Amino acid sequence: MNMYKKFQSPLGYQATDSQIDTYGVDHSGFSTRDELEYQFARQNKENQLIQNYNNQGITKNYPQQGTNFWGNSDNNYGFGSSNIHDNIENRNNNPFENTVNTFGLSQDKQSYGLGSDSQNQTFGQENNNSTQWGLNNTPLAQNNNAYLDFNGKELRWYQNNEVTNSWKAMSGKPDYQCKEYDSVKDKGPLPEGKWLVRQSQHQNFYKDQSKIGQLKSEYGFGIMGGWPGGKDSWGNNRIWLEPAQGTDNKDRTNLSIHGGKEYGSKGCIDLTDRMDEFTDKFKKYGHDMILDVKYDKDCW
């Protein structure tokens, strides 16, 4: 437990000297593997709750969970004293369910070390002034003077309809960077249309996961960790994209703008080592933005 003592999660989880954490679970009988399994399950369930709060417009000062987090106290909240994986699988409310779809883990992102992903109009001033809504009917908190566009090779930042910044970018795997492949999961580029880039959907590798989460992301196997493949695949920052109403996402989900070691994407916009520069500008800007994806060529 000492390895987690100084860490406190956004929802209030913290280890204690008594071996009973603030969610009420007794770790005294846990092996090292039990501890890792438990922390993985806790983080995934927290990510689900955080996503729900974000969808409601709550992006900070989240409600603290306490001992109500796991729902009941039978048999140490269903974790027993050993073999945590089996105990979790046997829980009625299985925190491992749909882990690939939880906030912070992309079902599209399976290629490690390649910065791969894990979602038709040209903007005019009239489009910027209109209210944009996401699929969850949450309006975009935007500043009308700035927006983004992506043409398959470059992500551009517009201020008052003038390009002020641009970053080399790509989307899609080699041989699949064509409009005709935008519905091909894990290979095709980001579908054309309008996408919402929300401040609340920004994640940082260090700030938004625990130390154990960082280790699991960097050195875990399979899909272990919230950033599978670690910083080589994602970089230090990522921002999840949401299709605006009226945009056909071609059933592509969990797509983002992210960085990584080298260009390689299954559908996200990959900025590699320029992602931190883009993130700094986006966070300093402080407003949600609209991203217009429109390819000026059939292939690029």
Describe the structure.
This protein is an alpha+beta fold. The chain contains six helices and eight strands. Strand 1 (146-150) and strand 2 form a beta hairpin. The chain is elongated. Mean pLDDT is 76; it is low at 1-5 and 89-131.
Radius of gyration: 20 Å
How would you spell out the order of helices and strands?
A: HHHEEEEHHEEEHE
Return the structural class: alpha+beta
| Total E-strand runs | 8
Q: What strand order characterises the main sheet? A: 3-2-1-8-4-5-6-7
Secondary structure: helix percent: 10-25%
Shape annotation: elongated
Outline the low-pLDDT stretches: 1-5, 89-131
How much of the residues is beta strand, in percent?
A: 15-25%
- What is the typical, i.e. mean, pLDDT? 76
Sheet with the most strands, sense and barrel status: 8 strands, mixed
Q: How is this fold's topology laid out?
A:
Blueprint: H1 32-55, H2 84-90, H3 125-129, E1 146-150, E2 154-159, E3 162-168, E4 193-204, H4 211-219, H5 230-234, E5 237-243, E6 256-258, E7 269-270, H6 275-285, E8 289-293
Comma- or semicolon-separated keywords:
300 residues, alpha+beta, elongated, disordered N terminus
What's a concise summary of this model?
With 300 residues, this protein is of the alpha+beta class. It has six helices and eight strands, in the order αααββββααβββαβ.
